[in-house]
Amino acid sequence: xxxxxxxWGGRFEKTTDEMINEFQASIAFDKRLYQEDIDGSIAHAKxxxxxxxxxxxxxxxxxxxxxxxxxEIDRGEFNFSVELEDIHMNIEKALTDRIxxxxxxxxxxxxxxxxxxLDMHLHVxxxxxxxxxxxxxxxxxxxxxxxxxxxxxxxxxxHLQRAQPILFAHHMLAYFSMLSRDFDRFDGVYQRADIMPxxxxxxxxxxxxxxxxxxxxxxxxxxxxxxxLDAVSDRDYVMEFLxxxxxxxxxxxxxxxxxxxxxxxxxxxxELDDAHCTGSSMMPQKKNPDVPxxxxxxxxxxxxxxxxxxxxxKSLPLAxxxxxxEDKEGxxxxxxxxxxxxxxxxxxIGGMKLRVENMRRAVEEDFSNATDLADYLVKRGMxxxxxHAIAGRIVHDCIARGIYxxxxxxxxxxxxxxxxxxxxxxxxxxxxxxxxxxxxxxTSYQQVExxxxxxxxxxxxxxxxxxDE
Length: 469
Description:
β3 (195-196), α9 and β4 form a beta-alpha-beta unit. By secondary structure, the protein is mostly helical. The strands form 3 sheets. The chain has a two-stranded antiparallel sheet with strand order 1-2. Strands 3-4 form a two-stranded parallel sheet. It has a two-stranded antiparallel ribbon with strand order 5-6. The chain has helices spanning 18-24, 27-30, 34-50, 56-74, 87-99, 101-105, 112-148, 168-193, 212-219, 228-233, 236-262, 290-313, 327-351, 356-364, 370-378, 384-401, 410-414, 424-427, 430-436, 445-466; strands at 153-158, 161-167, 195-196, 223-224, 270-271, 353-354. The longest helix has 37 residues, at 112-148. The radius of gyration is 31 Å and the shape is elongated. It has 3 domains: 9-108, Fumarase/aspartase (N-terminal domain) (Fumarase C, Chain B, domain 1), CATH 1.10.275; 113-146 and 168-207 and 222-351, Fumarase/aspartase (Central domain) (Fumarase C, Chain A, domain 2), CATH 1.20.200; 362-459, Ribonucleotide Reductase Protein R1, domain 1 (Orthogonal Bundle), CATH 1.10.40.
């Protein structure tokens, strides 16, 4: 019989097969939780001492040992062991080796089940705020870009066909609004992560007189799980994080697609900074928009992590199951991916240059002002359906003649309706088309100015939410 040296090996006669050790070990990826694991253990030790479950001397030795282990990991000098499976056992074993029996008392009234749940809550809570800070940076970049180019007119599209003239700032602020909803979604994630599971034990609580409220205060939690089964098995906050991350990446993917099109020769609306592009190994003329292409491509990766997590949890009975170890790698990768994407996009938006003359040409050499032509007649008493038909015939005839609406004379307009007057040519100028769309939330100069003011207030509120955490 071979002695089992694992910290949980008392019930076993044989050592775990080496292949199984490697299969079930999570230290390769969960070692990034060391900060949270040590913070949780320090709070737990303080609570145990306060409740006279361990001595003050044991508490002090535990805290000093944990702080030294933290510093060693920070310096990259800690030796992680696959044999010890995870971050919890690696730290506990190192602590016990260094301070003796006091280290073994740390795990009193605690299970790895509520310990890992605590680590994940702390990590998701911290990373959620980090993501929100990066969201604010990208929103600031959008606002600065919109403000800088507030008078630039471009085509607005439906079905990827030029539809109506809009302000470029209006387009940028649409993405600001999307990101504001993303910020709110992550705020909801934070609230669901801000619940403390420690004290639930393996699944049923503990026989020791612990003070969960004290531990929660020490770790800054707003609430505590009321049900120990729920505490160790809940991964809703992980699924919510991945859901919010997926929606965020979809928004960034949509913006990526437009940027990729806009910097193509066919559009030529913008030029990206050289720092955010690469060339071709064969074609010397190429300037490829690699950053938005990568962000667009990584969207599927994050959505995949959400689908994997939903599938993992969908049939799990209460309480803890080893399946829940699968909550980490996808989450960690999603966190890295969205933080990278937000960071590079803030730089990309701030560094791009507008080709204003090409945007202007696109709204002048087209028929995106046809709706305004129809509205001109409506304002003179004609029903919209009739004006729509007249404007459509005029567009048809202009296409046949190879001209645009601006090229027609007032007399030619009068042949379609006597309601046309000399001011019709001014009515269909891009500036007029934009300026007249003054309904709340519209693209007029006045409305876009109001949107910019609103965006700055939103940014102030968001900064207040995330604070200096």
